[in-house]
């Protein structure tokens, strides 16, 4: 019985030894790989995939009459996403068109009035010439009778009759001039009124164009190729202008990674350096990337309340600098990386510049 226990103890000891050896070997391999990775790469796991995710915002309010997309659906530029009831906007355009036609008709009336007044002024001008000729003739007649009266060849009554006729002719001449001046002034008034109406027509046309835009805004289209995200509207829902109705991920722009490197790692990083990217979702696949920019400040400097080290509570904390990395490769492969995915970024040190 004692011998049996001795054999069992030896077996357990041997198994334990083998397991310890395997663990030590695994730790050694892991340590070697880690040291090699730290030696060859500047790496960080504080990195996420980013892409332009833009809200679809309505520029007009009203009732939704059609929703033509589903969540996660691929869309092309110009595809109709939503349709808003446009009856009110169409009526506003029609009302503005009617106001424009009314103002244009008013312009025609003013043009007709100008034409009439121009004829009236022309007639008044002709009467001025006639009245002026009468005055001239009557002045000569008065001079003759005055000389005849002085020579006692004419009576005082005859001179007074000629004088009265001259006064009447002068009055007619003055009246003709005043009529001509009034007609001319009235024409100028109508021209000024016409300018006001023309300005009103220009304003109404601008208003019509603006309301026509509103009609166009009732059909919401995709601004670019992309994939629809979350949908927050249904048919029959009342929306306001400026309301966010959905989200769309832009497929026409590059996809990038924002890697937050420690400040002690960015000394020799340069724009154009190549990096390796491994996503947590695809640990067995490696993506390539290129550094396109380094942040001008650390992440904490852009926070809502940046730390103030001058308060006396200073504790030195290693800061991180956001590095923007464009993901390279075929679009079909890149699209496997989704916005917000966590990734590990490895920057080979051998390409560092001096």
Written account of the structure:
With 354 residues, the chain is α+β, with helices and mostly antiparallel strands. The protein folds into 3 domains: 55-77 and 221-250, Beta Barrel (OB fold (Dihydrolipoamide Acetyltransferase, E2P)), CATH 2.40.50; 87-217, Helix Hairpins; 254-351, Elongation Factor Tu (Ef-tu), domain 3. Helices cover 48% and strands 23% of the residues. It contains 4 helices and 14 strands. The strands form 3 sheets. Strands 1-10-13-12-11-14 form a 6-stranded antiparallel β-barrel. A 4-stranded antiparallel sheet has the order 2-9-7-4, with no helix packed on it. The radius of gyration is 47 Å and the shape is rod-shaped. The model has no long low-confidence stretch (mean pLDDT 83). Residues 56-249 form the Multidrug resistance protein MdtA-like barrel-sandwich hybrid domain.
Helix/strand layout:
Layout: H1 2-40, E1 41-50, E2 53-57, E3 62-67, E4 74-75, E5 80-84, H2 87-150, H3 156-217, E6 219-221, E7 226-231, E8 238-239, E9 244-250, E10 256-262, E11 274-279, E12 287-294, E13 320-328, H4 331-334, E14 342-348
Antiparallel strand pairs: 1-10, 1-14, 2-9, 3-5, 3-8, 4-7, 5-6, 7-9, 10-13, 11-12, 11-14, 12-13
- N- to C-terminal distance: 74 Å
CATH-derived topology of the largest domain:
Helix Hairpins
Helix content: 40-55%
Whole-angstrom Rg: 47 Å
Outline the biggest β-sheet. 6 strands, antiparallel, barrel
Gross geometry: rod-shaped
The ordered H/E elements are HEEEEEHHEEEEEEEEHE
Strand content: 15-25%
Low-confidence stretches: none
């Amino acid at each position: 019985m004692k011998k049996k226990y001795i054999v069992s103890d030896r077996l357990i000891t041997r198994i334990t030894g083998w397991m310890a050896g395997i663990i030590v070997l695994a730790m050694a391999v892991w340590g070697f790989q880690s040291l090699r990775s730290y030696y060859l790469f500047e790496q960080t796991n504080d990195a996420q995939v980013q892409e332009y995710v833009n809200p679809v915002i309505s520029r007009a309010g009203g009732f939704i009459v059609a929703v033509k997309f589903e969540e996660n659906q691929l869309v092309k530029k110009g595809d109709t996403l939503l349709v808003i009831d446009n009856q009110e906007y169409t009526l506003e355009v029609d009302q503005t068109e009617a106001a424009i036609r009314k103002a244009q008709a008013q312009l025609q009336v003013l043009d007709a009035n100008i034409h009439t007044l121009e004829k009236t002024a022309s007639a008044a001008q002709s009467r001025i010439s006639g009245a002026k000729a009468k005055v001239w003739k009557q002045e000569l007649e008065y001079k003759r009778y005055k000389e005849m009266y002085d020579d006692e060849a004419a009576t005082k009554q005859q001179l007074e009759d000629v004088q009265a006729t001259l006064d009447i002719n002068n009055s007619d001449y003055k009246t003709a001039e005043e009529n001509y001046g009034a007609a001319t002034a009235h024409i100028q008034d109508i021209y000024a009124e016409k300018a006001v109406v023309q300005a009103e027509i220009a304003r109404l046309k601008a208003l019509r164009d603006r309301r026509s835009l509103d009609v166009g805004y009732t059909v919401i289209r995709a601004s670019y190729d992309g994939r629809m995200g979350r949908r927050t509207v249904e048919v029959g829902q009342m929306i306001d202008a400026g309301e966010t109705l959905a989200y769309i991920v832009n497929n026409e722009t590059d996809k990038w990674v924002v890697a937050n490197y420690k400040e002690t790692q960015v000394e020799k990083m340069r724009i154009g350096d190549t990096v390796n990217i491994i996503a947590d979702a695809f640990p067995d696949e490696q993506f390539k990337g290129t550094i396109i920019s380094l942040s001008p400040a650390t992440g904490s400097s852009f926070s809502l309340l940046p730390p103030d080290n001058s308060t006396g509570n200073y504790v030195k904390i290693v800061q991180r600098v956001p590095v923007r990395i464009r993901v390279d490769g075929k679009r079909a492969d890149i699209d496997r990386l989704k916005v917000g995915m966590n990734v590990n970024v490895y920057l080979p040190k051998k390409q560092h510049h001096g």
